[in-house]
Amino acid sequence: MDAPITLHxxxxxxLLGRSPAMHQVFGLIKRVAPTEATVMIMGExxxxxxxxxxxxxxxxNRAQGPLVAINCGSIPAxxxxxxxxxxxxxxxxxxxxxxxxxxxxxxxxxxxxxxxxEMPLDMQTRLLRVLETGRFYRVGGTQEIKTDIRVVAxxxxxxxxxxxxxxxxxxxxxxxxxxPLHIPPLRERPGDVPLLAQHFLATLNxxxxxxxxFSPSFLEALGSRRWAGNVRELKNSVERSFxxxxxxxDVDLSVTMPTHTPEPVEAARPAGVxxxxxxxxxxxxxxxxxxxxxxxxxxxxxxxxxxxxxxxxLYNKLNSYARxxxxxxxxxxxxxxxxxxxxxxxx
Length: 347
What we know:
Elements: E1 7-8, E2 11-12, E3 15-16, H1 20-32, E4 39-42, H2 49-58, E5 67-71, H3 77-85, H4 102-105, E6 110-114, H5 121-133, E7 135-136, E8 145-146, E9 150-155, H6 159-164, H7 170-176, E10 179-182, H8 193-208, E11 213-214, H9 216-224, H10 230-244, E12 248-249, H11 281-295, H12 300-307, H13 311-328
Parallel strand pairs: 4-9, 4-10, 5-6, 6-9, 11-12
Antiparallel strand pairs: 1-2, 2-3, 7-8
């Protein structure tokens, strides 16, 4: 049996931090964990939202049950329903056996929905219904299944903006954020950097059976960084320097990600064309021809094949645009001939 989660000098369970901001988080976790309230954990990537979810689960009355996590942003839209609710054998091509989704596997415990704002809106509607009723059907199933779970969700987005941008249903936001919990970024608690760095170094030392240490200048350098990637970036930085160090991790051993702005690269050719609502049909046709010619790098035979018209028709269109240019002084696509340069028909 795992040791009980307790508040200690350096944090709460596996969550480390001595800063006032983190102590406030620890207090909120201890308040909400014993309840059945759904929790929405908010914070930037790398702050440790999954560790917070684990801590809530381990301090809850469901600690003896399973903690099942699913990243809603890493699953294709076509598969997320089956992953959430499971499916019956033969319900779709490739379903050679029945499969329990995360809602079934988490029964009696906690379901952690990471990056919930990345879930398709139509699936959010179904998720809301399941959260409200506690009942669902497998894909292809006819038997209603009752679930007994506690839901903890997380996102790295501003949930209010996500609702405004139609990335999150407003009713689902209120259902999930019964108890919102914000995890501060590492730059807002620089005093926690040495504690975390020493923890990561101790873990690496144990794993390699060595006793490497930080130089004072290295610790000072760590404390002055902004840590855009938060705790995850700090951990990776310590590990990179650990690999390079013989005995002492020093500043000149730190391998960091490049901070310069990369040179701009040529934009990829468009795979489509934007036609504003209200455009005339001939304008839309011309835009399509121009973009297709650009895509085909001026190869008119290839462009005609892509457009599904004859080469003669394409040449007639281009000559027509050239005549219009003479009359209206409108700019041409780079592969459309100028005035007086009619395109000869292929022989």
